[in-house]
Amino acid sequence: MPALVLLGAQWGDEGKGKATDLLGGSVDYVVRYQGGNNAGHTVVVGDQKYALHLLPSGILSPGCTPVIGNGVVVDPAVLLSELSGLADRGVDTSKLLISGNAHLITPYHTTLDKVSERFLGKRKIGTTGRGIGPAYADKINRVGIRVQDLFDESILRQKVEAALDNKNQVLAKLYNRRAIAVDQVVEELLGYADPLSGYVADTTLLLNNAIDQGRVVLFEGGQGTLLDVDHGTYPFVTSSNPTAGGACTGTGVGPTKISRVIGILKAYTTRVGAGPFPTELLDEDGEKLRTIGGERGVTTGRDRRCGWFDAVIARYATRVNGLTDFFLTKLDVLTGWERIPVCVAYEIDGKRVEELPYSQTDFHHAKPIYETLPGWSEDITQAKSFDELPKNAQKYVQALEEMSGAPISAIGVGPGRDETIQINSFL
Ligand code: IMP
């Protein structure tokens, strides 16, 4: 079972960092395959809390090689500051490998992200403002700058010139901003060449060899299924493919080599930024979930929108990712509710709909149909096995499993590394 994908089954922030970290001790490589520093993983190790944005969470597991794949967009300034922050706390970061084919987020991408959101006004996406969309747009437009370009000054200059040719027109004429000087960008980027040179590698070759040699490779998705640019709630999505297929294109490892796809599923639902969210709670239950669950973005500090569990979304995640397992997180947050509603289907224009509607219009009109399950009041954070959970918590998990279409193989009952109930092994 050498290659596993671990991804968000909802709108991101499902607690993937904890799940990846839990597996970290038994895996040889942890690989990020998409997104950039728009992601935010919180990992708790002992009494230490780490907030990671760009680095794979495997960086915290000694013996594990963290890899940034070709599908990731890398802001080199953020990467270096994250590395030095960890080094200051005594974490060994020397094993990190970065694909030479990964694209760079430059200062003009961040500027464009911010000004274009401002320009959209009420129609804005609510991006993280980290330059993710503009960097991916340049990649697809074939005017992106890649990590490998840092090591060839003349190529770098040509590419920056080509990219800025058009962007400076847009910045000046459309957004009324000052043009960005080619020299300034080239100089800044060249400054990253030395500190990054030791990390750059042919990660595709390396990962395929590792899998062939029976090493355990874990592909770690950022964001979540419903934020996927193809399969999410477009246009309120990120600009990459967090779904399972992204693990292949974002690393150069073929689908036949992937043995397991694990969806991280929060016991309720959250979303950051704009876009439809059928089970959103705008009442005191929503506020309670936000407070107890600590639902504040690791990257942006924004409050997350909160709502009840949505089984329609979970079923959809099973389908579009071919999930083999779920890791249910934050079950402890639901402790104390007398009754817990779960969305089992939607009502759209008077009709009951069991599957996620493919039309954006329908999804915007979807109203949740709830089934209400009995809650529990006992503290579950010390539970070490499924049997140690209160009966109603067991029933809640079983109901979610039946509705979601894949076995729940692990349950998070608290934020700590060891506050997890493992039902089936992932390896
Ligand atoms: P972008 O990825 O910064 O372009 O933002 C696009 C959308 O994805 C916005 O709604 C963001 O709030 C959302 N988003 C991006 N990264 C994350 C994440 O790690 N967790 C949750 N939402 C995210």
TrEMBL record:
Assigned EC number: 6.3.4.4
Residues the entry annotates as binding IMP: 13-16, 38-41, 128, 142, 223, 238, 302
Residues where substrate binds: 298-304
InterPro entries linked to this entry: Adenylosuccin_syn_GTP-bd (IPR018220), Adenylosuccin_syn_Lys_AS (IPR033128), Adenylosuccinate_synth_dom1 (IPR042109), Adenylosuccinate_synth_dom2 (IPR042110), Adenylosuccinate_synth_dom3 (IPR042111), Adenylosuccinate_synthetase (IPR001114), P-loop_NTPase (IPR027417)
Enzyme active site: 13 (proton acceptor), 41 (proton donor), 139
Pathway: Purine metabolism; AMP biosynthesis via de novo pathway; AMP from IMP: step 1/2
Gene Ontology MF annotations: adenylosuccinate synthase activity
Cofactor note: Binds 1 Mg(2+) ion per subunit.
Binding positions for Mg(2+) per the UniProt entry: 13, 40
Cofactor needs: Mg(2+)
Places the protein is found: Cytoplasm
Catalytic activity: IMP + L-aspartate + GTP = N(6)-(1,2-dicarboxyethyl)-AMP + GDP + phosphate + 2 H(+)
Keyword set, alphabetical order: Cytoplasm, GTP-binding, Ligase, Magnesium, Metal-binding, Nucleotide-binding, Purine biosynthesis
Pfam families: Adenylsucc_synt
Residues that, per the record, bind GTP: 12-18, 40-42, 304, 330-332, 412-414
PANTHER family (alphabetical): ADENYLOSUCCINATE SYNTHETASE (PTHR11846:SF0)
Role noted for this protein: Plays an important role in the de novo pathway of purine nucleotide biosynthesis. Catalyzes the first committed step in the biosynthesis of AMP from IMP.
Subunit structure: Homodimer.
Family, as annotated: Belongs to the adenylosuccinate synthetase family.
Protein name per Swiss-Prot or TrEMBL: Adenylosuccinate synthetase
Record lineage: Bacteria, Bacillati, Actinomycetota, Actinomycetes, Kitasatosporales
